[in-house]
């Protein structure tokens, strides 16, 4: 199918909206970490302080780049769903690890956050990479094609 | 596969899943109780694994007992004598002194015992397991302890040796973890879990292993740096520590902290203080809101988690003096 300019603008708007949502999540994480650390009697955890890095580096940054540079190969819904779930899992996992470090305890169950989080992010990136490669092979460079994934 | 492509259905489903899992992780870490073993409440039932070792243990204990009786006989009294800050009987002598250092109240129990059998540990609810906690004073009362401090709070860690009163409960090691071993002759030694197994310690005559740390004083010298801290703690806090001065002569130390009256101590300050009291080997135990000293039926320090409310925190275990 041919992607019209209006469709592309719509996609761009969606990407901008996603990036903005990630920015709000990052700010929330910064605020949450600051408040939590304030009441933790100067017991610090990097996982709590830097939990915002996941939505910032994994969300704000890539989606802002996509938006600015007018990326024509927009990730599909499946890719976005898995990728977003991965970033959310990593962010929550980081905060949970921070909570436990500050309390002074551990739990192996937290490893599930890292496995699932990086797994989803990895699958999302893989699907996007496959799509980019597929599009490059099957379409002329100037044709604004998009796939269903 | 179509479900994964739906925007809101997937977001809703995954939010529920992630929230549920997080809730379970919180409950599993802090709430859900699992009892793995019941502790022996009578110390005479405690046993070291092999009968051969048991025999050696008895001989060594007798030797230590006799040696102590000769060295520190003057500390004991024929009859039980109890005052607000002292306790003594035929086998135990305790003197409580409150110091004021670094804008902090520090409570020191100077302890002499005729045998290491009077230096014991106890689990909350007399049970070994996860999320089994009780206040230090409640555990102390259960065991008729004369003096008690909070222990290593083993329940908050998934790794680390748990060896109490000659019974091995957990031998999962944490490679760089520094432990305090209390041997059957009453001496203290700092070991690293990566270098010796819990079973070897038991076979060699360890009565107690306390797994928190770090070591504060070793061979009479301060062994922590000015910047060293427990885990992620970077500041002054309430502290609990235990030390040996010489044969069957111990120090139990608890400091206040997090309050307007008491700032708390850094590990370096605590180590220096214990060295000044003559500690040969000193070891840091669980601190912060856990730090509690109980003597003759009363909590004598000001335990607090948030600095506003003076209240004991529930802990997994205690170290105590009792017969």
Shape type of chain B: globular
Low-pLDDT stretches of chain B are: 42-72
Number of strands of chain A: 0
**Helix-strand topology string of chain A:** HHHHH
Largest sheet of chain B: 9 strands, antiparallel
Largest sheet data of chain A: none
Q: Tell me what portion of residues of chain A adopts beta-strand conformation.
A: under 5%
Q: What is the string of SSEs of chain B from the N terminus onward?
A: HHEHEEEEEEEHEEEEEHEEEEEHEEEEE
Q: What would the average pLDDT of chain A be, to the nearest integer? A: 86
Tally of separate helices of chain B: 6
Helical content of chain B, roughly?
10-25%
* Multimeric state: heterodimer
Gyration radius of chain A, rounded:
18 Å
Structural class category of chain B: alpha+beta
Q: Give the termini distance of chain B in whole angstroms.
A: 68 Å
Strand ordering within the main sheet of chain B: 2-3-4-5-18-17-19-15-16
Whole-number count of domains of chain B: 2
Bulk shape of chain A: elongated
The separation of the N and C termini of chain A measures: 13 Å
Describe the fold and architecture:
Helix content of chain A is 73%, strand content 0%. By secondary structure, chain A is mainly α. Residues 145-149 of chain A have low confidence and may be disordered. Chain B is an alpha+beta fold.
Short description:
With 149 residues, chain A is mostly helical. Chain A is built from five helices and no strands. Helices cover 73% and strands 0% of the residues of chain A.
Describe the SSE topology.
The complex is a heterodimer of chains A (149) and B (323).
Chain A: H1 5-38, H2 46-49, H3 53-68, H4 77-103, H5 111-138
Chain B: H1 2-5, H2 7-30, E1 34-38, H3 51-72, E2 81-82, E3 86-88, E4 92-101, E5 104-113, E6 119-123, E7 127-130, E8 134-135, H4 136-142, E9 147-150, E10 162-164, E11 167-170, E12 178-183, E13 188-192, H5 198-203, E14 206-210, E15 215-218, E16 221-222, E17 239-246, E18 249-255, H6 267-276, E19 281-285, E20 293-295, E21 298-299, E22 314-315, E23 317-321
Antiparallel strand pairs in B: 1-7, 2-3, 3-4, 4-5, 5-18, 6-23, 8-22, 9-20, 9-23, 10-11, 12-13, 12-14, 15-16, 15-19, 17-18, 17-19, 20-21
